[in-house]
Each structure stands twice: as structure tokens, then as C-alpha cells.
Amino acid sequence: MRTPSPMSRNRPPVADPAAALTVSHAVRAALDTLGVDQRQVLVLRYFLDLSEAQTADVLRVAPGTVKSRASRAIASLAKDSSLRELLVTRNEEDR
């Protein structure tokens, strides 16, 4: 029996697995556009739910560096048109 990954342990049941897979692929593709430093920070902070201090310890950087890398990464992802389109489509489906 496989042990669930840390990123899947606390997920609620998915109503539409196909849509969830589409979102998952889009997020992974968007993360791949980031540099390694920014991607590491986002994965540790938001997927593994580590604090800024814990993330800084893992990466051996200052907490301020974690904050700035996360901020820049999120700004880059906000410009990603494929993610924006996906969010618009998902919001329209929820109505």
C-alpha cells in the first residue's frame, strides 16, 4: 500500500477529478516556469505548509529571502495567462 504524499494528505474529496487534474497540470506547468529558488519556496511554503522560518531553515537562507522569493514567484504566476484563464473558467463553472 502506498503512503500518501505530504501534498495529498489533507485534500478534501474532489467533486470533478478531471477538472482537478487539469488544475494540477496547469499549476505544475506554471511552477516549471519559475526558477528553482522561487519554485522551492512556493512548494515548501504553500504545498508542504511550512512556516517562513521553517522554509528558511530548510533552504539555509534568511526569512526575508523566503518572503521576497515567494512574493516574486507569486507575482510571476499572476502574470501567467493560462492560470488566469483557468481561474476564470473555474469561477464561471461555479456560478
In short:
69% of the residues lie in helices and 0% in strands. The protein has helices spanning 17-32, 36-47, 52-59, 63-78, 81-94.
Structure description:
The protein is an all-alpha fold and 95 residues long. It contains five helices and no strands. The chain has helices spanning 17-32, 36-47, 52-59, 63-78, 81-94. α2 (36-47) packs across α4 and α3 packs across α4. The longest helix has 16 residues, at 17-32. The protein is globular, with a radius of gyration of 15 Å. The termini are far apart.
What form results from the Cα inertia axes?
A: globular
SSE topology string: HHHHH
DSSP strand content: under 5%
Q: Report the span from N to C terminus.
A: 39 Å
| Main β sheet profile | none
Q: How are the elements arranged and paired?
A:
Blueprint lengths: L16 H16 L3 H12 L4 H8 L3 H16 L2 H14 L1
Helix pairs in contact: 2-4, 3-4
